[in-house]
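Quick one - first record:
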Amino acid sequence: MFLEIEDGIAYAIKEFEGRPDFHLAIQLELARRHRIDHWIEPAFRQLINMPILTLSLDDVICIGIVAFHYLVQTKSLIEELKKGIAYHPPEAINDPECPSPLHCDYSWKKEWWNGLAKFLLHPDAGLMGHEILAELEKVKIPGMCDACQVLTVAWIKE
């Protein structure tokens, strides 16, 4: 980087990316220090998905106090948002021709509390938002008519 030798920089980046032991803290620090922009976002995302207690003091020192602050702050905001979403289920959207809208509402809330909220809040195997949306598209909610389920899932995806 010091001599701005493009071939050398590209070679070093390629070699680092191919290493299975290329630690995320080092990746984030090198990305910030040497302006390897395409490393920053993936490293930050992976660090956010890790339990914060798995980071050692050396990792925190490597990342730097400012980046660590943003990491913890972002992780906290995501957790707050997940809890808010889990505890306040969205309303079911009823099809105008639904024969039993109250039953669909009840089935939706039951599925939310017994399944989806748990996916959001699970401490070890919680799912991310896009994963929950994918699961919602696959599942048939017991007791909810197809039309109401399609409308509700479409509304949530928006």
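second record:
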Amino acid sequence: MWAEVREKAATWLEAMSPRARRAVSLMLVAIVAIAATSVFYLRPWIEQRPAAATSLTGTSGVQPSYFFNYDFKSPALGWAVEIEAKQGSRPDVGRYWIFRTVDGGRHWQRQFRGQSQTAWMTLNTLHFVDLRTGFFLAGDPMSLYRTRDGGDHWTSLALPPNAEMAQFADPARGWAATGSDLYSTSDGGGTWSAPKKLPTDTMGSMPTFRDGSEGWVGGGGTDVQPHVYATRNDGVSWRRLDLPRSTDASPDEPAGTFVQLLPGHGVMVYVFQQGPGTAYTYTTFDGGKSWTVLAVPPTPGGNLGPLAFEDATHWWMVFALELFKTADAGQTWTQVDAYVPGEVRQLQILDARHAWGLTGDGLAFTSDGGTSWTRVKPPTEK
């Protein structure tokens, strides 16, 4: 099911016009991950580091590549998952390692390791909801792993039948989903509720919940009218909310949507179309009664790069070697006079001054709002 979601998103991207494709290429990667795994306010992000001198020919000695995902809670404290993927093998099969740093990445301690038949899911689901409680998915069949002591010990817990995705809002409350059913837990994954039905056209997306009642999920793929679904009763029932259609939207091409919750309040919705292709982004701060189009920063070609959030209205965006900020939820943008060490492809913001960035060769950290950055090496099992 989730491979189909990634395939469908890739098909949409290919069908778009060059300008629309440029506008969403970076954003789509993050949103597909959101659609197929967990959704959190400070979303972890992924790094790929190919092995040195990898051979693409020959039949002996398969050389692996390594992928990383990180989740930081402070300038000093953070976790990483490293995945080994070997050429010629199934891309979702591989070994994994969990690491922790307590000194800002100067040193990494290995806490856990294993083999996953769903390494892509393991890579995307590592997340700590507080300084001690974290979760990720791994294994075959898929299991939920939980720690309550900062990663020193992990417990394997059963997921609901056929569930392949899960997210947690805090140490107790969480949700798991199949393609059509939604489950909830109030004891950190120890027990799960009876299934509730999801809307039929959610494209296999994982609903995202702000608390124990309010949830959102994208819809579409067959309907030209972009829309999302919202619940106020923990998924017992869902209400369809239609979004405005862009003036340059194709009148005949189906529209699909992906939802991201903003910190505290507010919702962001990404809209994609096939055919000639349009891609645009809306926000709402009144539960979907009104929608506002996101303004594009003054980037070359008017492109939108990866977004990260301090709070509901203060956002950062990186594009190539440039950093932009908004204080009004994306209606106006200011370019920051900053030295960015290489291309920072993703950001995780801790507060107005402190943020972690993912570069092409590791990590970078800023303590002055992005004006200057310090490089940090990733962990390694080798």
